[in-house]
Write a structure and sequence with these properties.
heterodimer, A: 68 residues, mainly alpha, B: 134 residues, 6 helices, 77% helix, 0% strand
């Protein structure tokens, strides 16, 4: 092995990373994010509505409608 | 079996500093190229003390910083003056980490600075220009 091997490896790395950044700069797209991350604004809303406690009264049975 | 394991271990061990050096070179190259190609996108990371340090515009400082990281990153990739280049990059990253402060990014950069410093301590590995040119 001679000096050309580390030179080649290093230059390939420089060109590869430079090309990657160049393509990203030319065509800016958001970097892929962790799919398990849930954005705060799309989380399920678990808060109860303001009048949710008023619906606990059982329905009124119409006694007149019961056939004897 | 024992001899096979020890041989594999010896071969793998030889590549440990190479992989570490190339990975950190890629890191500095990526951030360097990103700053060179889009200096305005990195202005928010420029600390106030750095912006007031010279007469150079903030975008100019980002550009200078980007070329610094590209050139030294390339030197680290080919293994030219490995020990000194790694030391400079480690000091550079220590300054950045302390500037960012104690948060997730600051801790990550501090550890990366320590890792780069470890390369400086280790010196040139067998797959560097430093070793192969001599």
């Amino acid at each position: 092995m001679n000096a050309s091997t580390p030179l080649a490896i290093g230059l390939i790395l420089v060109v590869a990373v430079g090309g990657l950044v160049y393509m990203q700069t030319r065509n800016p797209r958001p970097l892929p994010s962790n799919p398990q991350t849930v954005p705060i604004d799309t989380q399920e809303d678990t808060t109860l509505p303001a009048d949710s406690t008023a619906t606990t009264t059982p329905p009124v049975v119409q006694v007149d409608a019961i056939v004897q | 079996m024992q001899s096979f394991n020890s041989m594999t271990d010896r071969n793998a061990r030889a590549f440990a500093p190479v992989v570490l050096r190339l990975a950190l070179a890629a890191l500095f190259l990526w951030f360097g190229f990103s700053q060179v190609m889009d200096p305005s996108g990195w202005l928010s990371w420029l600390p106030v003390w750095a912006a007031n340090l010279t007469w150079i515009s903030p975008a100019g400082i980002v550009l200078f910083n980007g070329w610094f990281e590209v050139i030294l990153g390339a030197m680290l990739a080919v293994g030219l003056l490995t020990r000194w280049v790694a030391l400079l990059l480690a000091l550079h990253l220590f300054v950045i980490a302390f500037g960012i402060g104690y948060n997730d990014i600051g801790v990550r950069d501090f550890i990366l600075a320590l890792t780069t410093f470890a390369i400086s301590l280790g010196g040139a590995d067998w797959l560097t220009l430093d070793k192969q040119a001599n």
